From TrEMBL:
GO molecular function term, any single one: adenylate cyclase activity
Domain of life per record: Bacteria
UniProt-listed SUPFAM superfamilies: Nucleotide cyclase
GO biological process: cyclic nucleotide biosynthetic process; intracellular signal transduction
Domain Guanylate cyclase: 45-178
PROSITE patterns: GUANYLATE_CYCLASE_2
Descriptive protein name: Adenylate cyclase
Organism: Ellagibacter isourolithinifaciens
Length: 243
């Protein structure tokens, strides 16, 4: 391998000397409008679903079993998360499935919460199937974050190696909170206070008892909310044996 450090120095200077248009937009545009010469500031929401104790799972001797479990976990979560028109990025980071959405309105943020509820119920289904087969069940956490955040296209200009970098609260908060959801299987969904404040009125409009679904964290992370809301019809079907 030979790295042309002189050319590298030139590229760094070009980036630092170039103009960068920071565009504030209510609704984050789709990928083709984001270039190496601009960046966007917009309201976005993120969801992260992360397996607990994945290191131990990945290290198991039966790698065929591990592969099947990871595929079950990732494939259906992606199926749930990919359908929204507001989707701006979806992917897998190790054992974590994540998605980022443009959410200019409270209703859009609430739609992301609805996706989290579907994911939560799906995890119940997956565990019920595993239990029926005498296999180990999974513990996972779901994190939700929202923020008025900055996104750039990063990587190597002129080379087909690039990605979005989400700078701000939404993605980092969702990723962090998914770890807390892993630890408490009774309250699998965790969200920032800003996320909660944007959805609670809508949820109460639908169901007057909605506030009772959520509890506020008294310790770390301070001020966050957690819940274990599920889709009732699907969950009843799961509990009824899935026949």
């Amino acid at each position: 391998m030979h790295y042309d450090y002189r050319a590298g120095k030139k590229r760094i200077d070009e980036i630092l000397d170039s103009g960068m248009a920071v565009i504030e937009k209510n609704r984050l545009p789709k990928n083709d409008e984001l270039t190496f010469d601009n960046s966007y500031l917009s309201w976005i929401s993120a969801i992260f679903i992360d397996i607990r104790e994945s290191t131990e799972l990945m290290a198991r001797d039966d790698q065929e079993y591990v592969a099947k479990i990871v595929r079950c976990f990732t494939s259906e979560l992606i199926e749930i998360l990919r359908g929204e028109d507001n989707l701006r990025e979806i992917g897998i980071r190790g054992d974590c499935v994540y998605a980022v959405y443009t959410t200019p309105k409270k209703r859009d943020i609430d739609n992301v919460f609805d996706l989290a509820v579907w994911c939560n119920t799906y995890l119940n289904m997956l565990n019920a199937v595993l239990r029926k087969r005498g296999l180990d069940t999974l513990r996972a956490g779901i994190g939700l974050g929202v923020g008025h955040d900055h996104v750039i296209k990063a990587g190597r200009k002129g080379v087909d190696i690039n990605a979005h970098v989400w700078m701000g609260d939404a993605v980092s908060t969702a990723s962090k909170l998914s770890g807390y959801g892993q630890k408490d299987h009774r309250q699998r969904i965790w969200m920032s206070s800003l996320f909660y404040n944007n959805i609670i009125d809508i949820e109460v409009e639908r169901n007057s008892e909605a506030k009772s679904w959520f509890s506020k964290s008294s310790g770390e992370p301070h001020g966050c909310y957690q819940c274990n809301v599920v889709k009732t019809l699907m969950n009843d079907w799961i509990n009824g044996g899935m026949d």
